[in-house]
Specification:
alpha+beta; 5-stranded antiparallel beta sheet; 3-stranded antiparallel beta sheet; 3 helices; 8 strands; 23% helix; YjbQ-like_sf; UPF0047_YjbQ-like; YjbQ family protein
């Protein structure tokens, strides 16, 4: 059973951003020739996440508002006490809220592959969440099957 992967880059905008990465995943899947199996999408950062949901503009705004309520930027997070931490980069942001948001979501999604297509439902899309942008991000896509 072949296993192939790709790492692709995504440049994100400031703040919380939600990106539909479904077309990019399907394009890669089509290039592999794999017809049946599964595909893993993995976010390689601690302040990003993935989810499968509807990519509808008003829902995306609701999701952003929900995440901001879960982890408001104004809370006094210990992670943001940069002067008390050791060995941190000079450009380290105060981003504890972004880490907490990411923990409420997931770092990966696995999707069945049937007849060379992602077996997503009618309104489902693979969503990549940037929780601490702007940044240059990478996603790993790994397909296994036949």
């Amino acid at each position: 059973m072949p296993i192939v992967h790709e790492i692709f880059e995504l440049k994100t905008e400031p703040g919380i951003g939600i990106y539909n990465v479904t077309p990019r995943i399907q394009d890669f899947l089509s290039q592999t020739g794999i017809q049946n199996g599964q595909i893993l999408v993995f976010s390689r950062h601690t302040t990003t996440a993935l989810a499968i949901n509807e990519y509808e503009p008003r829902l995306l705004e609701d999701i952003k508002a929900y995440l901001k309520k879960l982890a408001p930027t104004s809370e006094p997070y210990l992670h943001n006490d940069l002067h008390l931490r050791e060995n941190i980069p000079e450009d380290e942001p105060m981003n504890a809220h972004s880490h907490l948001m990411a923990m409420t979501l997931s770092t990966n999604e696995t999707i069945p592959v049937i007849q060379g297509k992602l077996a997503l439902g009618t309104y489902q899309a693979v969503l990549f969440f940037e929780l601490d942008g702007p940044r240059q991000r990478t996603l790993l896509i790994q397909v296994s099957g036949m």
